[in-house]
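Single Protein Entry

Contents — chain, fold
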Amino acid sequence: MIMANSNSLYLFLFFTLAIVDAQLYTPYTFFNSYPLGSTSSSSSPPSPPLTSLSSSPSPSPSSSISSDTSPSPSPISSDSSPSPSPISSDSSPSPSPSSMSSSSSPSPSPSPSSYGEAVEMSIGALDTFSSISLPPSSSPSPSPSPASSATLSCNSASFKAKIGVCLNYTAVDNLPSPSIIVQLLKTHNIPRVRLFSPDSTILPAFKGSGIDLMIGIPNEKLAFLSSASLDAVVNWLSSNIFASVDQNQVTYLAVGDNVLQKVSDVPNLVPAMRNLHMALQSLDVDDQILITAPQAISSILRVTFPPSAAVFDADLLPVVEPLLRFLSDTGAPLAVNLQPFETYVDNALKVALNYVLFEANQPLFRDEGKAYTNLFDASVDAAAAAMAKLGFGNVPVVVSETGWPTSGNREATTEKAAAYAQGIMNKAASGVGTPARPDCAVEVFFSNMFDQSGRGGKEYEKHYGVFKVDGSLAFNISFAIPSE
């Protein structure tokens, strides 16, 4: 009798602690259960030694990633924690088509005072703004269902493992001239750049350079673009972007940055994206220039571990579902910002360094039979699984910002920054996607091209630069991808 009571008390305490742990680490649920290293039973195993890239055990750029076929430790079963049921979007019908307003001077809309009010305004906007005109699809968009949550695919063969860097030209002092920056990019075989705004001081330098561009639309422009007339949006694109750079160099328009974290901008996001798409249609470049909206993955996913169980934050669904529907209808990717450094330093007792830096020699866990050796793959697949649960498993994922700082924290070193960057480059060179989408390679933008000394926040946030202001590399890395 005493033994039975002791067992019951033990089980009660175990599950109570498990629930408390899950609540404490909700933003990082992704990492609560995976092992700290591959074989050590120590509670604090030593991190694998970090050496120069020339002696790194990472696979060579010309070889494919072979972690799925290597022997693994005992898999972590997720069967005891079933994935949440798919979240239905049927309760929020698609907006009915309406014509775009011809007014060129939109009246200002009141600013929301809370996130709930912002969501309500966003839903109201979806009922009134103009709908996009899309070519007939061979198959309708999937409706949310249990089957759709298991369907992960890439809806475009054009998504390849291309590498780029982010550049916020006006946020850094003493930078080289725009022409030197363009030459620096070309010298180092960097084919793509993400600009955070159509900055007239740097954009013209890219004209005719052969460098593809993701051009950001600043958050403060969303209110105008969400309600302006078609002619006004076309004129804005023509004067701010296409007057400075060739249309065929622009691959993405990135509408806002982390808009879902900014209450006042939420109602304008999807309406602005739709109006921009209509403007691109009128210019006959909508097939070439895709429209997306970069978001920090940590701010939009409520559950992320295991990847197959990932779901979006329920509070964001009234905006996320129309956003994903737009991306699916136009063939555009979901753009996510990944910050593995922050994940590691905030959860050093739960996250293995070799898992974050692409240095694990064998899978650290398995999810529905898929082997995972690194945080990058697991993060991308978590986003894909969350979309699939809403019926949008065909939407690709582009990593619009990722990197590792070189200073500002004891874990921020040039060696670790080089190891992370080399892992990204090796993955790109292999042409292999993620475990859940092996045929859909992931496009990645490093953050940033230069350190941002004037940036606020924590000290390490200023030191993500790949280059120094004198044009030399901040750490040892080659951006050449043999397959390109």
In short: Residues 13-151 have pLDDT under 50 and may be disordered.
